[in-house]
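Worked example

This section walks through a single chain of length 210. The input is the sequence exactly as stored; nothing has been trimmed or padded.
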Amino acid sequence: MRIAADSAQDRRDGQSEWNRKNLFTGWRDPDLTERGVEEAVRAGRRLKADGYRFDRAFTSDLSRARRTCGLILAEMGLSIPTLEDPALKERDYGDLSGLNKDDARQRWGEEQVHLWRRSYDTRPPGGESLKDTAARVLPFYIETILPKVMAGERVLVAAHGNSLRALVMVLDKLSPDAVAGLEIGTGVPLVYRLGADTEVVSKAILDLAA
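Given that input, the structure is written out below as tokens.
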């Protein structure tokens, strides 16, 4: 996510080894695949080509997000203060972590696994719902990230599919039903511009194939 002066951008980490293997990842800490590295490099290249600059970065404390953030900044030629914080880490999938998603569907059924993955307030066994994830992401955004934006800083945030879904839900004013269908692709920058009232003025999704 990038937030600049009165603007902001979300950025999901690149593909990880467990994404590629179709495993529930959550708080487990696999590295990026070669594709994930290339996604991060392309994102940095596109952001630089479009004229974006950052004053500060925030990232999850999981290595795939930290590496994604580092690759973007390196590609852009930037050395800026970067804060790693567990508040931005992926949703905890609990007992599902490390399981193949197809195997989970065979064991518990398509409907139940879909409910665990996509609903707003249903927790997987031993894990977090999206509502639980939002309960740690949003206070961090409000108390730590947003004040930097309102002070005029341009900010990059590299996080995960569900931590960013929780944030985008608020920025885009999505209902719990609507957020169930929200997909955030790996490595794709989302650019938000915020007004003086903290409301979203504009949003752009950068096409890395362009």
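What to look for: The helical segments are 17-20, 34-49, 63-76, 101-108, 110-118, 130-150, 161-171, 176-179.
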